[in-house]
Write a structure and sequence with these properties.
The chain is α/β, with parallel strands linked by helices. The chain contains five helices and ten strands, in the order βββαβαβααββββαβ. The chain has helices at residues 53-60, 80-93, 106-111, 118-122, 191-204; strands at 5-14, 22-27, 49-51, 68-72, 97-101, 127-130, 150-153, 172-177, 180-185, 214-217. The structure holds iron/sulfur cluster (SF4). The site of iron/sulfur cluster has 15 residues, from loops.
C-alpha cells in the first residue's frame, strides 16, 4: 500500500540546500509554531498538493544532475511513512543522498516517534538537522536555521564530502515558475524582507507579470505578497 504525500512545494535541481545538486520536497503541515518561522503558510495541516511516492521520485530525479534529496517543510516527520517510501523509490532510480530537517529532537524521534514510519525514514536519512528554529539564535551561518539546531550524520556518506553543514556561508536561489517565485535555501537574516520588497517593486512596475505567489524556503517558508489574500 502506498502512502500519498501532502506537499507544500517541490523543486528539482538546487545547490542551496545541501551538497551537490539536489531536489527538494517541502511537506505541508507542522505541529510547531516557532516564532519567526519563515514558512507560516506551510504550518497548517490542510490539503495541498497530493503526490504518490513512485511518481514523485521520478519527477524529482528527472534531472540527471540531481545526486540528493532534501526533505523539509512543514514537518517531515508528520509524513514520515510517505517520505520513507519516496526515498526507497528514488534510490531504485539513483543512489541519492538524503538530508532531512525536523523540529523534533533525534532522541525523541527514537524514543517516542510522533508518527508511524519515523524509524523507517531515519534509517534512510544520511544527515538529520534537528530542533526547532529559534530566531534569536539565528547566526546567519550553516544549513541549520539557528545555532541550537544540531547536524547528525546518521551515516558516513556526507561526513567527509567537505560540506560544512554547521558553519558554511549561506546561499539562496530564486526560482520563477509561472506566477510563483520561490526563494530556495536557508536565507541569512534580513534576506526575506529584501526579497519581498524587491518582488513587490517588480510587481508594481508597469510591465509587471501577473499576480502570483512569493514563497521563500529554508527549513521551510512561504511569504505571501501583501496583496495576496491567503
Ligand atoms: S520553523 Fe520549521 S519547525 Fe518551526 S514552525 Fe516553521 S516549519 Fe515548523
Amino acid at each position: 500500500m502506498t502512502t500519498s504525500l501532502n506537499l507544500a512545494a517541490t523543486h528539482v535541481g538546487t545547490e542551496a540546500l545541501g551538497p551537490g545538486v539536489r531536489s527538494v520536497v517541502w511537506v505541508q503541515g507542522c505541529p510547531f509554531r516557532c516564532p519567526g518561522c519563515i514558512a507560516p503558510d506551510w504550518i497548517p495541516d490542510r490539503p495541498a498538493r497530493r503526490a504518490e511516492p513512485v511518481a514523485l521520485a521520478a519527477e524529482l530525479l528527472a534531472d540527471p544532475r540531481v545526486s540528493g534529496l532534501t526533505l523539509s517543510g512543514g514537518e517531515p516527520m508528520q509524513q514520515a511513512a510517505g517520505l520513507a517510501e519516496l526515498v526507497r523509490h528514488a534510490r531504485l532510480i539513483r543512489d541519492v543522498s538524503v538530508v532531512c530537517f525536523t523540529g523534533h529532537r533525534l532522541e525523541r524521534l527514537r524514543s517516542d516517534p510522533p508518527t508511524a514510519g519515523v524509524a523507517d525514514l531515519l534509517a534512510r536519512v544520511d544527515v538529520l538537522i534537528d530542533g526547532r528554529y529559534v530566531a534569536s539564535l539565528d547566526d546567519g551561518r550553516g544549513l541549520r536555521g539557528s545555532s541550537n539546531q544540531r547536524v547528525h550524520h546518521l551515516t558516513g556518506r556526507l561526513a567527509a564530502c567537505g560540506y560544512d553543514f554547521d558553519a558554511r556561508p549561506r546561499s539562496a536561489e530564486i526560482a520563477v515558475d509561472g506566477p510563483e517565485t520561490l526563494l530556495i535555501g536557508v536565507p541569512p537574516p534580513g534576506l526575506l524582507d529584501v526579497f519581498d520588497t524587491a518582488v513587490d517593486t517588480v510587481l508594481a512596475a508597469p510591465l509587471a507579470r501577473p499576480p502570483g505567489e512569493v514563497r521563500g524556503s529554508g527549513t521551510s517558508a512561504y511569504v505571501p505578497r501583501k496583496e495576496d489574500p491567503s
